[in-house]
């Protein structure tokens, strides 16, 4: 099960998921656009996300006088959403969700891609 994120923590994660490069806390503020976060608030949120293991320190970047830590998400947006939705469900409930999602797909190529992924997963499980 994935740990709960506050609204503000999720907003920080959304900013980070939208960026390819690792970001410093100051860069998070700059690229967040319409948000008006204070530096101290972002630092608190970053520390909370580090503690919850949603982000990790991946390096350092020279700022005007000091070095700032750079951060990257530890999971993709899709991984987070999948864990959020399925994390608390029983296996049979998950199976029902998978079946319902498959019924929503009308594109044969998408279904073939899903089948390839299932086949690859079955191979991994067979080799364990």
TrEMBL record:
GO MF annotations, alphabetized: DNA binding
**Keywords, in A-Z order:** DNA-binding, Transcription, Transcription regulation
Family matches, as InterPro entries: BlaI_family (IPR005650), WH-like_DNA-bd_sf (IPR036388), WH_DNA-bd_sf (IPR036390)
Entry's Gene Ontology BP terms: negative regulation of DNA-templated transcription
Does the record carry DNA damage as a key word?
A: no
Keyword tRNA-binding on this protein? no
Family note: Belongs to the BlaI transcriptional regulatory family.
Task: Please give the name of this protein.
Answer: BlaI/MecI/CopY family transcriptional regulator
């Amino acid at each position: 099960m994935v740990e709960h994120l506050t609204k503000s923590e999720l907003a920080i994660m959304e900013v980070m998921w939208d960026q390819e490069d690792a970001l410093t806390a100051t860069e998070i503020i700059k690229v967040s656009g319409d948000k008006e976060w204070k530096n101290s608030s972002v630092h608190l949120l970053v520390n909370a996300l580090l503690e919850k293991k949603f982000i990790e320190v991946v390096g350092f970047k020279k700022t005007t006088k000091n070095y700032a830590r750079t951060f990257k998400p530890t999971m993709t947006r899709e991984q987070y959403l999948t864990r959020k939705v399925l994390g608390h469900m029983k296996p049979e409930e998950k199976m029902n969700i998978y079946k319902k999602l498959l019924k929503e797909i009308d594109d044969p190529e998408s279904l073939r891609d899903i089948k390839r992924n299932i086949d690859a997963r079955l191979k991994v499980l067979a080799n364990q």
